Amino acid sequence: MRKTISVGLGALIAMYVLGGTSARHEIFPWPQLSVLRKTVGAEKAAPPSRYIFDDKERLIGDETKTPVTCPTQTDRTAVLLILGQSNAANDGGQRHRSNYGARVINAFGKQCFIAASPLLGSTDTKGEYWTLLGNKLIASGQNDSVILAPLAFSGSEVARWAAGGDLNPVLVDTMKQLQASGYRITSVLWVQGEKDLVIGNTAEAYGQRFMSMVDTLRQHGVGAPVYISIASKCLEPSNGGFKEHIPDNAIVRAQLALSKSGHGIREGVNSDALLDGDDRYDDCHIGGTGAEKVSQAWLTLLRGDRRLEPSG
Q1: Contact (CB, 8 A) for 87 and 298
Q2: Which residues form the Sialate O-acetylesterase domain (predicted)?
Q3: 7: domain range?
């Protein structure tokens, strides 16, 4: 019995020494065992998807999209550059598609597609209300065609859009692509602020970084009005927000001040005040009834502005 125990103990010690030496010097059997472990334990390949994303998780491909020839811009064409975070991105609770075929377009990467949720150019794959706005602009007689150019990133704070931020070069690239496609931006729609409230940004810092983003627009030939939404409300920790919302906060004060500061900046939709609890499907993101309210409010603003400034 003692002999058996001694032999077993000796074998264990030998295996330990052999394993340590093999691992340290990368000799048999360590490399082979390592490969086997990785092969057996490797995660299964992701199942195929209709969607393609870039390294910033922006939707850049969707095999269901319908490509069309980019329409020529006229004085009755709205070209909307859409910027912000999740409530400007594909996080809506209701999907929409063009009711007018190629008259409502999703422009992305020097290509054009019939607009349908989710829109290429922004993060996530749920719904959005910009296509609904495009339908309303045409139905109202305001425009004959609408070009939607979305560039919205879920959870993005304003600093990322300012000069030096990681989204600033993406903004510049988007403007260049639109210009190369022959499009002159007629309005810039900014829907952002919830993230900055959560991280405790000050009104002064928010204003400075927003103006840095506006300077980027102006430096690249965009002279169109920039509509800054009053947007700071995103409740519940599951959304990265708070349990309760305080309407009078630093971000709202900054947004209101910016909308009155000149520089072609105008007040956009006040989603904080416009939407109630039923309009946000998860206490933060805009659901079907909210989409109807917000798109109608944007329509009213854009229809009331007959002095759209050219962007050079």
Answers
A1: no
A2: 78-220
A3: 2-41
Please check whether residues 108 and 32 belong to one and the same domain. no
Rounded CA Rg of the chain: 26
Query: Of 187, 184, 219, 204, which is closest to residue 83 (Cα–Cα)?
Result: 187
Q: With 50 as the cut, is the pLDDT of residue 16 above it?
A: no
The pTM assigned to this predicted structure is 0.84
DSSP characters over 83-117: EESGGGTT-BSS--B-SSGGGEEEEETTEEEE-BS
How far apart (Å, rounded) are the C-alpha atoms in residues 301 and 130? Answer: 14
At 251, which amino acid appears?
A: I
Give the H or E element holding residue 218.
Answer: helix 203-219
Number of structural domains (the chain) is: 2
The predicted structure's pLDDT at residue 45: 80
Give the tokens for residue 32. 């082979």
CA–CA dist 236, 232 (Å, integer):
13
Of the given ranges (33-42, 82-91, 246-255, 299-308), which has the lowest mean pLDDT?
Answer: 33-42
